[in-house]
Amino acid sequence: MSELSTKADQLKRQADLLGLTREAVFTDEQAKEVLQGKITDGYLVKVKIDLDSLNGMVLILVSSIRKHIMELYAVVGTSPTFRRIRTFADHVQISTDLGDIGKTGGYDPAISENIGRAVHRAFTKEKLEELLPLWQKKDPSHITELLENPILMATKGRNIKLQAEVDKISTAKFRYENPMKGVILPIPKPEDEAPAAQDASVPSVSTELPKGEGSALDRQIAQFRTGFPKELNMKTVISPINGIEFDNLMEGMEILFRVPTETPEGLTNAQILGLIDEEGKIKKEPVVGKFLGIASNKTEYHIFAEGPNQYLFHSIEEHPVKVAIPKPTSIAGTGNKTGAGQTQKKKVGNAPQQESKSSGANLFMLMGAFITIVLIGVLIFVMVIL
Predict the structure, then answer these.
(1) 32-44 pLDDT tens trace
(2) What is the side-by-side order of every strand in the sheet holding 254-258?
(3) Do the Cβ atoms of 135 and 269 come closer than 8 Å?
(4) Which UniProt keywords apply (predicted)?
(5) Are 287 and 253 in contact (CB under 8 A)?
(6) What integer pLDDT is reported at residue 353 of this predicted model?
(7) Which residues contact 2 (CB under 8 A, 6 or more apart)?
(8) For the chain, where are the alpha helices, taking DSSP H only?
(9) Within 10 A of 190 (CB to CB), how many other CB atoms are there?
(10) CA 141, CA 21: separation in Å to the nearest integer?
């Protein structure tokens, strides 16, 4: 009976984790990869606050894929426990300490909520898009600059000192195993920010057209976007010699793209596609997408392809180009080597013939020289007799 109970508990835990993970990603495939440990779907921002005579901590759980705050905890007060908490400590230990503070009543709920609301407003989606590439490089330096003034204004404080750290984390495991659960509630997003939160939680690819019918190009683009949870702006890899012309592209054909990493959005997309390693280096290899089609109005050409995890790749060209495709398995190289060997064999086989021809030519030359000498001798002999 105990074994059945244990298996039931494990299945329930897996189901709960899967449900929580789906809230941080766009597709079931991404959720499975998160649970398998292949990708990480979030960051935990840990901020220690020293504000006048108060101390506290703010924990911000951010979805790195959906790019929005999932949960935010602000716990600020006079408890001496705050002083021993360090930002570099394990998040489970920090959450346990904050839960203990909540049980003893050593924090101020009103001030904590004001700070939490101020932090919510500071971390807009646009700001997160700028910070996520930095957090990928484990750089939390901009967090304190961002939060100092909002927290001072929200609390009417005078002196503030902030320390921040960022941990890469599974959002589902943090929420499922959170020691603060039932003791300290997360600070909700302010009502004036609610629409933004709703926008951030829905798929970012819009298939709605502007009011009215929209242009023919808009209608074409909307058709390609249907059914895709996320659109990534990409650059087409062009191959003028070996590439495939627009007219010869077929649906499902694999073509190559690159992520434009010159912008914060591009760096975020590179992270989503797993092109940034632990050291923050960006992989140079192109990304393969399955060609879907082209929307055009003769002045611009929108190329659409299906990328990994059902991402929609979208690149724009000003005129028809030859698109690069993945290189086939190199069989031709082996054939070339074989051909070269055969050529060498032919050359080796011809060598005796060339040598015999050379020997024959030398023999004829010797005979000619001998005959010439004999004739000259005969001539001299005749002249002497006469």
Answers:
(1) 888 888 888 999 9
(2) 230-233, 311-317, 301-306, 287-296, 254-258, 235-236
(3) no
(4) Membrane, Transmembrane, Transmembrane helix
(5) no
(6) 47
(7) none
(8) 2-22, 28-35, 91-104, 109-122, 125-136, 141-155, 171-176, 194-201, 216-225, 264-272, 332-385
(9) 15
(10) 28
Q: Name the pLDDT band for 362 (thresholds 50, 70, 90).
A: low
Number of Cβ within a 10 Å radius of residue 81? 16
- Which residues 6+ apart lie within 8 Å of 140 measured at CB? 45, 134, 164, 165, 166
In one-letter notation, the amino acid at residue 108 is: D
Question: Which whole number is the average pLDDT over 89-112?
Answer: 91
Burial of 175 (0-12, 13-18, 19+ CB in 10 A): buried
Tokens at residue 145, please? 């600059």
User: pLDDT tens digits for 114-165?
Assistant: 999 999 999 988 899 899 999 988 899 899 999 999 999 998 888 999 999 9
**Would you say how long the chain is, in residues?**
386
Segment 193-215, tens digit of pLDDT: 444 333 433 344 544 444 444 56
Fill in the amino acid letter for 300: E
Distance CA 98, CA 69 (A): 20
Residues 41, 65: contact at Cβ < 8 Å? yes
Q: What are the pLDDT digits (tens) for 287-308?
A: 999 999 999 887 789 999 999 8
In angstroms, rounded to a whole number, what is the distance separating the alpha carbons of residues 373 and 370?
Answer: 5
Alpha-carbon dihedral 190, 26, 184, 167, rounded to 10 degrees = -110
Structure tokens at 132: 């996520």
The token pair that represents 364 in the structure block? 């004829």
| Angstrom distance (rounded) from CA 369 to CA 377 | 12
Which residues, 6+ apart, have CB-to-CB distance to 41 below 8 Å?
Answer: 21, 24, 25, 30, 34, 63, 64, 65, 170, 171, 172
- Report DSSP state, residue 209: P
CA distances in angstroms from 348 to 7, 53, 341, listed in the order given? 74, 93, 10
Q: Tell me how far apart the alpha carbons of residues 246 and 321 are, in angstroms, rounded to a whole number.
A: 7
> What is the pLDDT at residue 337?
43
